[in-house]
Design goal:
alpha/beta; Rossmann fold; 5-stranded mixed beta sheet
């Protein structure tokens, strides 16, 4: 079975605790603190492996965890950092939070490597806490906790064009004819158990990637048959080719078939019907002449809506050139950028809900915000990057901290201080 979905639990490593120790050397009767820092916990990192095309590796194992950082040692020895956990997935894998179903990352396009969970920071040893009044601190900082979440992995094929149609209409034959793909071809329902991809090369025009989306049946959007397993692959395509049997060898009504598939697409996601569509009336090698009553009926039904009908033979190659060049032109009109899902959710946010925090005034224009949630979030987030800073802003908004600051009378241009960081406040 083609594995295009999996649900797993991932956990980043806990940071090692800081160490408490004191120098104990001959002739040094009052040695100071020399406890070392703990090591950083390992991150959970997803990496695209071009050699993979399924999520089978995640079907038989449920939990994945990065290494914990080691505790610091004597003589200011730094604890060893925990090893990162590298999880390899096929290109096109979308990582979602299982609880909210929101996108954490889309491993597509230029996104070949992404840190999904940051490991806990290493705790500082007691050597950091010596002051003029506290020369022998007997405490150290504990390591930061790792993050554990359940995620859903969904593989969504990255193709410019999707071939859709009921079983046995010739999609696999068409794909093998116009690309270098070698799909298995047989005459029974659901012979295609996984999407097959191929590259179409055209003289004088831009080529494109085409995918044979496995046969759909009525009720697919409700999980009937294998249809729902593969509907998600159509989401990334930008043009759809309906392949129908123009010779009537299967005894089906092509117009009813197209409308049935469009109904399933609309039930799954109404946005799918906004994509440009083309109809490939296949198997004309089995009819007399270039047109019959089926092809005429298709043209009368759909061409008035701007959906062109191309009589073709996937076996002989007749009509394929006209079809492919028309599809290439459609792709130019709707843009060549692949569909990439934007990040909707930061896993670190879940762990900072309902933690206490304080807002104090340093002066009339400076507000100091402190609390475990703030410190942890700053530790997990790279606010030097634009994306990281936007996530931190969203965190402050979702936690109600910005509203609370306004209740305290903050004005535009005032300063907000948080654990060594200073920000100007703007609405």
């Amino acid at each position: 079975m083609f594995a295009d979905r999996a649900t797993i639990i991932i956990k980043s490593g806990k940071g090692g605790n800081g160490h408490v120790s004191f120098r104990r050397e001959k002739y040094v009767p009052n040695g100071g603190p020399d406890g070392g820092d703990g090591g950083r916990g390992g991150d959970v990192i997803f990496v695209v492996d071009e050699g993979l095309n399924t999520l089978t590796d995640f079907r038989h194992r449920r939990k994945f965890a990065a290494e914990n950082g080691e505790e610091g040692g004597k003589k200011k020895c730094h604890g060893k950092d925990g090893a990162d956990l590298i999880l390899k997935v096929p290109a096109g894998t979308v990582i979602k939070d299982a609880e909210s179903d929101k996108v954490i990352a889309d491993m597509s396009g230029d996104n070949k490597r992404q840190v999904i969970l940051k490991g806990g920071r290493g705790g500082q040893g007691n050597s950091h806490y010596a002051t003029a009044t506290m020369q022998a601190p007997k405490y150290a900082q504990p390591g930061g906790e790792g993050i554990e979440i359940e995620v859903k992995l969904e593989l969504k094929v990255i193709a410019d064009v999707g071939l859709v149609g009921f079983p046995n209409v010739g999609k696999s034959t068409l794909l093998s004819r116009v690309t270098n793909a070698q799909p298995k071809i047989a005459n029974y329902h659901f012979t295609t158990l996984q999407p097959n991809l191929g590259v179409v090369d055209l003289d004088g025009a831009k080529g494109f990637v085409i995918a044979d989306i496995p046969g759909l049946i009525e009720g697919a959007s409700e999980g009937v048959g294998l249809g729902l397993e593969f509907l998600r692959h159509i989401e990334r395509t930008r043009v759809m080719i309906h392949v129908v049997d123009a010779a009537g060898t299967e005894g089906r009504d092509p117009i009813a078939d197209i409308k049935a598939i469009d109904k399933e697409l609309a039930a799954y996601d109404p946005e799918l019907l906004k994509k440009p569509q083309v109809i490939a009336a296949n198997k004309i090698d089995s009819i007399y002449g270039d047109e019959n009553e089926i092809i005429k009926a298709l043209k009368d039904e759909f061409e008035k809506d701007g959906i062109k009908v191309f009589p073709i033979s996937a076996v002989s190659g007749q009509g394929l050139k006209e079809l492919l060049y028309h599809v290439s032109q459609l792709l130019e009109t709707c843009g060549r950028e692949p569909v990439i899902y934007e990040q909707e959710y930061d896993p670190a946010l879940r762990f900072f809900r309902d933690d206490p925090y304080t807002i104090t005034m340093e002066d009339d224009e400076t507000f100091v915000v402190e609390g475990p949630k703030i410190e942890k979030m700053l530790g997990y987030t790279n606010i030097e990057s634009e994306k990281g800073f936007l996530f931190f802003q969203r965190f402050l908004k979702e936690q109600g901290i910005l509203d609370n600051l306004e209740e305290h009378g903050i004005q535009e241009g005032d300063t907000v201080k948080m654990y060594g960081h200073a920000f100007e406040y703007y609405k």
